[in-house]
Amino acid sequence: MTWLVTGGAGYIGAHVVRAFQDAVRDTGDATLSPVVLDDLSSGHAEFVPAGVPLVRASVVDTAAVRAALVEHAVTGVVHLAGFKYAGVSVQRPLHTYEQNVTGTAHLLAAMADAGVGQIVFSSSAAVYGTPDVDVVTETTATAPESPYGESKLIGEWLLRDQGVATGLRHTSLRYFNVVGSGSPDLHDSSPHNLFPLVLDAITAGRTPRVNGDDYPTPDGTCVRDYVHVADLAVSHVAAARALAADRPLERVYNLGSGDGLSVAQIMTTVARVTGVDFTPEVGPRRPGDPARIVASGEAAARDLDWVMRHTPEQMVASAWDAHRRARG
């Protein structure tokens, strides 16, 4: 009996896999042993720990997913595989829907065929669009502003409807900017995320770039929740354990900081932690980027062991260590 982590060779997924391993070690519960399914389109095989099975397949391949579920006696799924770039999704909507909506539908079909009845879904705060409140909660109206955000909301609907149809037990975790590293050998290699872009730039002697400084925020740059990837991973496993124990869970949870940081504040922190002084260049806004999204994490703190255990300085320092190790 195992848990399948789709996208488990990716940046977030690899941290979730290690959190599952930690849970097995701490509790002795072998039913929490992870199995990874990843097509390695953006993941890295070397991120998968020795001894953890890696199934190289896409979630859109129903037969391959079904075979993996049966072969590894999977009892639950943490679904992280997908296309995760809001800005790029505006230019590639069909690809985004194929990966995130069709992929989730195929995964759910394979789960139904294999009799797997519980899933933790990696959703996004992008489902809120630009909310008209300072801090969103799980009851804040959803109004996504990009195909990516729309695809994540549709994913939540698919789980809801499959729950009605088959009794699928599920919960969805909404979050935004995931940063840092829980281990120096796990780095964020995304070509679109803020931290790797900034760290790549200063490593190469280039000036980091800010996408827009004319947003209606205190310093003109976007404000987001920045959450440490290891903290996030712990709550994914907590959700899986709650489902496995048949404990009641909400349909969705925000994994948020409650206050948020601006891109300019992140830039200042990067300069201070790395010791590389710079003034960022200012480029145009990125399509699909709302000005501010900050979420309350109170419900997740109550039910999913959600705690912001890392300061912004620790987030940057851990990302910097992993980045430098990856660059040799």
UniProtKB/TrEMBL annotation:
It catalyses: UDP-alpha-D-glucose = UDP-alpha-D-galactose. One of its GO terms (molecular function) is UDP-glucose 4-epimerase activity. InterPro entries: Epimerase_deHydtase, NAD(P)-bd_dom_sf, UDP_G4E. Its EC number is 5.1.3.2. It comes from the Bacteria. The keyword Transmembrane helix does not apply. Its cofactor is NAD(+). Keywords: Carbohydrate metabolism, Isomerase, NAD. Residues 3-256 form the NAD-dependent epimerase/dehydratase domain. Belongs to the NAD(P)-dependent epimerase/dehydratase family. This is UDP-glucose 4-epimerase. It comes from Cellulomonas iranensis.
